[in-house]
Amino acid sequence: MKKMTFSLFATAMALGAFQAQAADPVTLQLKWVTQSQFAGYYVAKDKGFYEEEGLDVTIKPGGPDIAPEQVIAGGGADVIVDWMGGALAARDKGVGLVNIAQPFKKAGMELVCPKDGPVKTEADFKGHTLGVWFFGNEYPFYAWMNKLGYPTEGGADGVTVLKQSFDVQPLIQKQADCISVMTYNEYWQLIDAGYKPEDLIVFNYSAMGNDLLEDGLYAMEDKLKDPAFEDKMVRFVRASMKGWKYATENPDEAADIVVENGGQDENHQKRMMGEVAKLIDNADGKLIEAAYERTAKALLDQKIITKEPSGAWTSAITDKAIK
Amino acid sequence: MNSVTEKIVPVGTLLIGIVIGWYVLAVFMNAPFQRDMDRRANVAPGTIEFLQSTLSQAKPIVPAPHQVAQNVFENTFLRKVTSNRSLVYHAAVTLSSTLLGFTFGTILGVLIAVGIVHVAALDRSLMPWIIASQTIPILAIAPMIIVVLAAINITGLLPKALISTYLSFFPVAVGMVKGLRSPDLMLLDLMHTYNASPSQVFWKLRVPASVPFLFASMKVAIAASLVGAIVGELPTGAVAGIGAKLLSASYFSNTIDMWAALVAGSIVAMLLVGLVGLASNIVEHAMGARPT
Amino acid sequence: MSIQSLSWQSWVVLLLALIAMLTLPFTIDSAGFSAAQTALVLALLIGAAIGDGLRLPVVSKAVLFFLAAHIAAWLLIAGIAGQEGSGRASFFCAIAAAWLLAWRCVSLLSSVRSRSRLTGALLRILIPTIFGAWILILWEAVVRGAGVPFILLPPPAAVGQRLMNSLPVLGADVRQTILKSVLIGYAIGCGAGFVTAILADRVAFLRKGLLPIGNMVSALPIIGVAPIMVMWFGFDWPSKAAVVVVMTFFPMLVNTVAGLAAASHMERDLMRTYASGYWQTLWKLRLPAAAPFIFNALKINSTLALIGAIVAEFFGTPVVGMGFRISTEVGRMNIDMVWAEIAVAAVAGSVFYGVIALIERATTFWHPSIRGG
Asked: Residue C25: is the preceding peptide bond cis (ω within 30°)?
């Protein structure tokens, strides 16, 4: 039976490939598992926006141990969703990543502390334990601590850093005094766990002006030199931004599409979509230069990158894609 | 009949003890969070109510046995086998890569053992490295291996199976070296007096002598394959399989789902080891061994 | 000087050297190799293969092969360094030929039957070392020759350099993971397993209940409890030690119980005629008889403990530890650091295993499995 379905599937694939011969294949590697954080791409695929642009897009979900930079460098993807910190750090290591579009205008990362805990203000961090994710998500946190002048090796004058798990348990179990959350994801898990918004003190990176650019689209520099590939990316960005626009206007439908593609927990995805929409702003995907400069400077200040990056972003794609 | 009850009573008693201990642990571990919840909600429940609520949290630190049992039951029998929430579906995904990896691992292990027993150069150079190979924390770099293999277009079942292979060839290789060398000198001399060729010695004496060793090491190997498959599923973007289920549950602290996934993995492990045991009994019986 | 037939390795070396010669140069535009170097490599390969036909003493022939194989390999790797990705078929044929020469060298050394213990011990170390060295040589040559991207698989030389440059960091990680999580967890897990086995041996009811459960749990994917342990015992080393305890407890229990049944009835009856009590019998007869089983469990557990602790560190840690370093450095694209950490883990694991094997040899020297082995 399994063989049978497989051969049917293969035939269907072959037929599909035959019919859609004109469609250019594009592989997109996400930074994390399937969730509304990436709704725009799933909507664009589901609603046929990619197809209209003559693209056949494969979306690969990520996970806790998948470095999108490594995937694209190994040739496993044409374009990736990545945070600027990780992308610039990889560029510093010789992986020629270039930002071709920046759908997320604002950062969704924040640090939250319970009101009945020891931390009320930035000055209270000293001598306490703060949780943060690693794998390319630690850069904004370290940049902020660097700005505050706190050493991150623990002790009475510094902060103790925890590599936290991907849920909110460290705060619930009081293993950390504050933890990192995303406005669109873990924050709501805290609310679900019985915290009320007034029980939490929130340090939002965007509000503090410490944000580093998050979800952007990156492609390899050497590939972009090829006009055919560049054109493919222009069409990809155009369709993706159309998807984002649709997703922000119809959040519930977008969340449904995400759940159909393997997203967990429908209500959670709907809420996430609503929060993500706030970060998208107007869906033009253009990178704001000031935000880029700030990100690069923060990374340079704490020696995450060794030299001023050059050519790490281009507006050529978005200029052509979004008229 | 008597011997059966003799076995069941002690095991049953211990299992009941474990379940009671589990309930106590669940109450004890879930109480602090429940107190925090009640404090925030400004309620003061009675003892009985409090106990009930510690055993019925949606995301407890230690789920109560009945919560796990209910979750396993629902996701095994009440869901379509093709549904993403069905444990049967996830178990089948994990099982397929386990079996593929186990098959590769067994073949590789046997080949290595035959090489070690028959080629002097291999015998002198390979054994320390086979042991050293297992000290490489392959599970820790499994994610990276899968990314690297994906870069050379090896995706899907095979990379996961390769991790299983890496873990399962070892017990088979070690066990088979012992097994192929198990015939004593007397028997080897006997083959000599019959003027047997090396290949005849191998097929007629060494192979039959090594069968019990093979099955014993296959039991270890299949358990190792399962671990390899589960860990290999972690970096596949949490799509399918028991490992993926475990991971996606841990993102959302769905502890009950996590425990259910562990139970499913354990059931699969028991089935696999049981099957190898059964096969070993059948083969040994056919080869004329005394029934144990 | 008389002639003897060539071994199959030498024939294949000749064939490969011929192919390499026909498909010269080694690299695109012969970058990195002068004509003299190229000629020297081929001369070494062909010379050694033909030298196989001379009737020389085995040891001097082995030395000849050893030198030819390693000098050729060194020349090839030195030439390709800095010219990554330019290797052609000729280069890979030459490397394969050098590898076969090394194999021939190992075959010759394996056939040496020395009477002195020192030579025997030297050979026991030298032969596996050549094998291990060639894993690294082939890795280096293939990665550099084919130009595999650094962030997919760095060459061993770069890993070694990184290892040397970050000893303090690696030391801190070893302290956190091995000296705390692994050793403490291992001691508690093995100790508890052993004590439980003795207890089960004393109480028949317990044994009948525990053994089936123990056998069952030994086969379970216990590593899956890692995230749960992190939830229970916090982020620092206790949670990792807890995972190690759970992983090592059952193999120890099952093996010790099996070992305690190893002493034969005849011997036990003898102890009874001496009027020795339970503890005396245990101490003087049954535990020594169980020693091979117990050491077997200790060896299995040594690798389990290391893997358990490292994997458990994926689910939340302080910012130190081998598992922490492996997972975060992948995210930072420092793949050389990841491999350096893996090398440290492998060395630590091998040392751990080796120490237990040595203790076993020292304490159970009287056992047939050691005497014969």
From this structure: yes
